[in-house]
Write a structure and sequence with these properties.
The complex is a heterodimer of chains A (277) and B (430). Chain A has 277 residues and is mainly alpha-helical. Chain A has one domain: MetI-like fold (Orthogonal Bundle). The N terminus of chain A is likely disordered. Chain B has 430 residues and is of the alpha/beta class. Chain B has two domains: 272 residues, 3-Layer(aba) Sandwich (Rossmann fold), CATH 3.40.50.300; 111 residues, CBS-domain (Roll). Chain B is built from 16 helices and 17 strands. In chain B, the strands form four sheets. Chain B has a six-stranded mixed beta sheet, with helices on both faces. A five-stranded antiparallel beta sheet of chain B has the order 5-4-1-2-17. In chain B, strands 11-12-13 form a three-stranded mixed beta sheet. The longest helix of chain B is centred in the middle third of the chain and has 18 residues. The chains are: A mainly alpha (277), B alpha/beta (430). At the A-B interface, helix 9 and helix 10 of A face helix 3, strand 6 and helix 4 of B.
């Protein structure tokens, strides 16, 4: 249940990378401006949809006759606490993923390390292909229960998209541009910083957004190992057969994932280097 | 293009030539795990201020040779000497900042504006902002792009030809003495390619850089090159000579095949109309009586009269029959007049002749003034003379190019022993 928003968002994550090629019409600045305006429109729609869904949920919760247990779990203060925990899990894990995966991805595209890229990717793949719930529980058996273990599990789970997109992003840079840079006398580091990374940014950011969305969904599982977060609503709802709590928890996680996806898209739009189609 | 006067023979080369000579001294490149060397013991001298074209079939090592000059590919053996200095051991990045590099389609960075692209090397060299900005504008003018219009554009907002021009401007940014070009015009359409080639020739006339250019297009090599080096596998230098002599006197069957059909026709691109002897013509002005003109044609034994206006520009080209039908000569301009500029190649002139009804063309000089008539016979005579000259000439100042242990590879029948000639700035190094 809690994985659904993650999967949905991961599916839509392909959106900007796929559509990036379609508006590659040669044109002046006017065209560029128009296409920029146009790309804001779906973002506004997405935000409006999220807000609307949030309002519907709130209205539904306010109008429904809640039992005492439901009122305790669904009161605004505790909802805020759960959401805060959930975001803390997500953001901390995301930060660690960035710090680990981006430099590792860069390193694996450098010539001396290219040979080990395959094996490293295979290991990282394991993290993602293992069922998330299994990963969480196994790590808990090894590292103990709690917030920290939950973060470790999330990091392992979200490493792959960032690492792979960093490598793909750098790998898709036209090798002739790298050669042109070196041929002009730019050092290898200068070519990396001024040519390869800027051109890899759109794909890297798409990977980071995918990872974030995955994290929001997967963080719901950390409640099983006492890691906190919105997952508690879902487990409570299932265990006590309180379908309203269950639905509220699932919808909040989904909306949070969509919101994080939205923020990611905004960042992608702003950070995309000018001049790229 | 067609003169093969060595740099030393011009009046004061040091003041014009900004290029530097290059010497590849027994340079080899071997890749681990490959039995044959990609480049095998190549010694090649590239004279200062000249365009040297490296041609050969794909995989022959011409690009490897080019990239070893700026050490994008490090030679396994041998020395690279630039302007008399051994640069084999110096920092590669520093070396490359002193050498312009142009690749196919320009290789512009898509996320940087035209100005930023051009400014890369000057900025690395620590130029001031004002100096960089002034240089960017100067270079855009040089490659015929309006700075105000193009400076702030991104590469994807330019056509292929414009991108290539910016690529050339970027390579020239820090005024390097040497320009390396790797199939620079391979990615543009034929019409744009011709224009870019013509522009490169005129830029080179102005700047006199040393240009080393890789191409697989022999016609391009003939058009651009002062010297052409023809390679076969393993960067074995088969022939290194002027375009004229390679066309007239191919070293062996390989070169013959590489030149392809129509070597004679290709030679037509090497001679310009103002280098051949033009025929005189009977001229007349609008308003003249056609009977007078006809009698003058009889006197001189001509069949056509050229009508010129007050500023000596040709208006019409009338045959006896056309004249006989007129009383007085009109002043309208015939739009289908076969006119060719005196800077055009014989090839262009021939093209125009073939579509004209007269089988000849009118030659015009500065301000379109009439100079004379060129016909097919004139071209044939010029061709056979050029051919004979190329056969017997010794290509004075011919640069050295050999592979170790393959001294016969270059052995043209008329070459004497070409000594390693140090170019003007005393490169040589031997």
């Amino acid at each position: 249940m809690s994985e659904r928003p993650g999967v949905v968002a991961a599916g839509t994550a392909q959106g900007p990378t796929a559509s990036a090629g379609t508006d590659a019409l040669p044109g002046g600045t006017a065209d560029t401006l128009v296409s920029r305006d146009r790309s804001w429109l779906p973002l506004l729609r997405q935000l409006a949809g999220i807000i609307l869904a949030g309002l519907v949920l709130a209205a539904w919760l306010l109008s429904a006759e809640l039992t005492a247990t439901e009122q305790i779990t669904l009161n605004p203060a505790s909802l805020l606490v759960y959401t805060g925990e959930h975001l803390a899990l997500t953001l901390l894990a995301a930060a660690i993923v960035l710090v680990v995966a981006v430099p590792l991805g860069i390193l694996l595209t450098r010539r001396p390390f290219r040979r080990v890229a395959g094996p490293v990717l295979a290991v990282v793949n394991l993290g993602q292909s293992a069922p998330a719930i299994g990963l969480v529980v196994l790590l808990a058996a090894w590292l103990g229960f709690g917030f920290r273990t939950a973060v470790v599990a999330l990091v392992v789970y979200a490493l792959l998209p960032v690492l792979r997109n960093t490598m793909v992003g750098i790998g898709q840079v036209d090798p002739r541009l790298v050669e042109a840079g070196r041929g002009m006398g730019m050092s290898a580091a200068a070519v990396l910083l001024r040519v390869e990374l800027p051109l890899a940014v759109p794909i890297m950011l798409a990977g980071i957004r995918t990872a974030l969305v995955l994290l929001v969904g997967t963080a719901a599982l950390s409640t099983f190992i006492n890691g906190g977060g919105l997952g508690i609503l879902i487990t409570t709802g299932v265990n006590l057969n309180l379908s309203r709590v269950l639905i509220a928890g699932a919808v909040i996680v989904a909306l949070l994932a969509l919101l994080v996806d939205w923020v990611g898209r905004v960042v992608e739009l702003l950070a995309r280097p000018k001049g790229l189609a | 293009m067609s003169d093969n006067i060595p740099a030393t023979a011009s009046t004061d080369p040091a003041s014009v030539i900004t290029g530097a000579s290059i010497l590849l001294d027994q340079v080899s490149k071997r890749y681990p795990g490959q039995a044959k060397a990609a480049v095998d013991g190549l010694t090649m001298e590239i004279p200062a201020g000249k365009i040297v074209m490296l041609v050969g079939p794909s995989g022959c090592g011409k690009t490897t040779t080019l990239k070893m000059i700026n050490r994008l590919i490090e030679p396994t053996e041998g020395r690279i000497v630039l302007d008399g200095d051994d640069v084999t051991g110096i920092n590669g990045d520093d070396l490359r900042r002193r050498i312009g590099y142009v690749i196919q389609a320009g290789g512009l960075f898509p996320h940087m504006t035209v100005a930023t692209n051009i400014a890369i090397v000057p900025k690395m060299l620590g130029w001031s902002k004002d100096r960089v900005a002034a240089r960017v504008d100067e270079l855009l003018e040089l490659v015929s792009l309006d700075p105000a219009q193009y400076r702030d554009r991104f590469p994807r907002e330019l056509s292929g030809g414009q991108q290539q021009r910016v690529g050339v401007a970027r390579a020239l940014a820090a005024d390097p003495p040497v320009l390396l070009m790797d199939e620079p015009f391979g990615a543009v359409d034929p019409i744009t390619r011709v224009r870019l080639q013509d522009e490169l020739i005129s830029i080179q006339k102005e700047l006199q850089k040393t240009i080393v250019c890789v191409t697989h297009d022999f016609d391009e090599a003939v058009k651009l090159g002062d010297w052409i080096a023809i390679f076969t596998e393993g960067a074995q230098l088969v022939q290194y000579d002027t375009p004229e002599r390679i066309l007239a006197e191919p070293a062996n069957e390989f070169v013959e095949n590489f030149i392809g059909a129509g070597a004679g026709l290709k030679q037509l691109t090497l001679t310009r109309v103002n280098e051949v002897e033009l025929q005189s013509a009977v001229t007349a002005s609008p308003g003249d009586l056609s009977s007078d003109v006809l009698s003058r044609l009889d006197q001189q034994g001509h069949d056509h009269a050229v009508i010129i206006d007050g500023r000596n520009r040709p208006l019409q080209w009338l045959s006896r029959r056309q004249l006989a039908r007129l009383e007085r000569i009109g002043s309208t301009r015939d739009p289908r007049l076969p006119v060719v500029g005196e800077r055009a190649t014989l090839n262009d002139a021939l093209d125009i002749m073939l579509v004209s009804s007269v089988g000849a063309a009118l030659v015009t000089g500065g301000r379109d003034s009439f100079r004379g008539v060129v016909d097919v016979e004139t071209i044939m005579v010029a061709m056979s003379q050029a051919h004979a000259r190329a056969r017997t000439s010794h290509a004075e100042g011919k640069p050295v190019g050999i592979n170790t242990g393959a001294l016969t590879a270059l052995d043209g029948p008329h070459d004497g022993t070409a000594p390693l000639r140090s170019a003007d700035r005393g490169a040589g190094g031997e």
